[in-house]
Every structure is written in C-alpha cells, then in structure tokens.
Write a structure and sequence with these properties.
Layout: H1 3-13, H2 31-41, E1 53-58, H3 61-70, H4 75-80, E2 83-90, H5 97-106, H6 112-127, H7 131-155, E3 159-163, H8 171-174, E4 182-191, H9 205-208
Antiparallel strand pairs: 1-2, 2-4, 3-4
Helix pairs in contact: 2-7, 5-6
Length: 212
Amino acid sequence: MNTVQRTNDFREITFGRRSVKLYDPEIKISREEMTEILAGATRAPSSVNMQPWRFVVIESQEGKEKLAELARFNKTQVLTSSAVIAVFVDMNNAEYMDEIFGKAVELGYMPQEVKDMQLKAVKPYYANLPASDLRDVNLIDAGLVSMQLMLVARSFGYDTNPIGGYEKDQIAEAFDLDKDRYQPIMLISIGKAAKEGYPSYRLPVETVTTWK
C-alpha cells in the first residue's frame, strides 16, 4: 500500500466519521467478526498492561429492548443497530496481574526477571491505590480502547456511535454484573448506517493547540 492510499484510508476512517443515529436493522454482525473487532480494539495502549476494559455485547432483540429502556434518548440507535457494546471497567482488574505477566513470559515477550521486578513494584502499588485514583487510571484505558474499537469497526466497514446518555446506575445489574466491581464507561452502537450521520463543527487546531 502506498503513502497516498494509506493517507486516504486514514482520512476515510477518521475524518469521515459522523454521528450515526439510524442503522439498517437487517444487517447482523456475526460473533466471529465481532470477536475480531474486539480483538483489534484490545490492542489499545493500557497502563502497566492491566487491560481493565470489559465488554458486554448486546445483540439479541431481548437484550436491545432491555437496554432501550435504560437509554431512552438513544432508543433508535439501540434498536436498529446490529449490536451495542457496553464498555465497563473492572475495578478488580489487578486479579489478572499474574496471568498477564505470566503469559508475557511464556510467549517470550518478557524475561522472567523483568516479570519478577514488575510484579514486585506493581502489586503493592495497586494494592494501596485509592479507588478514585484507580478509576481515573481505568477511565483513560477505557477511553483508549473505546476509540480504537470505533476505528477498527470502521476498518471492517461498519459505522458506530458512542452513547453517554443511559442509566449508568442500573446497567450493570440489568446485565447480571456486580455494579461495584464493573463500572460503566459508555455504550457503542455498531452496524451499517441507514442514513448518513450529521456533521459537527470542530474547533480549529489553532484554538486547541499551544506550540512551545
């Protein structure tokens, strides 16, 4: 792929994205393809590689109808999409620390001595981290994985829309999750747009950037 083609693909994936409110309800995404999209999303950067993100893929009609009652101002996106991905953070994600670092050694990504050194430093850090600080760290990772999910979905030819308007205090329990452990970040609807999304004004780079 030449530089021009890469540039055009990047512009199509990023600059061309618009807020989608209506999807083609006949388009379904297979679990195999959705798994590929999620796998691509989880390559996003993560602080100390702790990967706190967790996903609930709401694809059944029953699941979407339940979600629609919790996202009353976004019912159209929920009900017409192929699926809605609810992004949560696992506040007990440190439980996976040994598995993450152990697998890194097993796969040859990290020497054993580096693993031992990392765990010696990271375990007490996480054990003593206030819940509010841990949530701040996890929110950054969840934001990164969410944006990457949307970009990966676009590369597969699908449209997405992030949704922040829903009953955050009810969604975990509605989908059988421990609401104290699994805290909601956003919903991401995904499918094929039935109607072109509307554009939005963005502040110019000169307004949001300072050069030093």
